[in-house]
Amino acid sequence: MKIKNVELETVCGITSVLPDNELPEIAFAGKSNVGKSSLINALMNRKALARTSQKPGKTQTINFYNINQELYLVDLPGYGYAKVAEAEKRKWGQLIERYLHGSKQLKALFLLIDIRHEPGTNDKVMYNFIVEMGYKPIIIATKLDKLKRSQVAKHLKQIKVGLDLLPETILIPFSATSKQGREEIWDFVDKHVLG
Ligand code: GDP
Fold first, then answer.
1. Which of 105, 108, 140, 145 is 20 to 30 A distant from 190 in Cα terms?
2. Where is the signal peptide (predicted)?
C-alpha cells in the first residue's frame, strides 16, 4: 500500500450518528496505551496525526481516516483505562459495540495486545466479544522492540494461550520504532480487504 493521501474525515463521540461509508473499513481496537496511535501513525506514514498521548484514555471518539480514497482506517476508543469511572467505560463500550454491530463495511478488525504482558481481563472480554460477533480478529502484538529477540516466541505463545486464540488466528508482531510488521499488515489488507 502506497500512502498518497490521508484525511481525518469523521470523528464520532458517544452520541454521534456513525457514518454510512461506501469504502471498505479496517478497524483497530486495544487497551489504552497499547500503542494504537503509534501503530496507526506508522501505517499512515504520519508522525502525529493519530494522538499519541501521555494521558491514556483522555479523548474517546471513533476516528475515520480516509486513505487514498480507497479505504477507511478506523481508530476505536482505547479501553480499560483504570482512572475512568465505570459509567464512562460503559459508554465507550456501547460506542464500540454500536460500530461493530452497525458497520456494513468493516472488513478487517485488528486487536492490539502489548507483547510484554499477559492479556488482561479487558483484552479477553474484547477478543471474545469480537469473535462472538462473527469477526475474525487479527492480533497485533505491539512494542516488539521492547523485548529481546530470544523472548519473542515465549511472549507470542503467552498471547495465544492467554486469549485462547482460535488456531487459524493471524498474529503479527509489530514495532512502531523499527516499523517491523508494518508491511505484513498492509499486505494483509491488500490481499483480504482490497484484493
Ligand atoms: P495508545 O494509547 O494505544 O494510542 O498508545 P500510544 O501510541 O500513545 O503509545 C503509548 C506509549 O507507548 C507512548 O509513550 C509510545 O511512545 C509508546 N509506544 C507505542 N508503540 C511503541 C513501540 O512499538 N515501541 C516502543 N518502544 N514504544 C512504543
1. 145
2. none
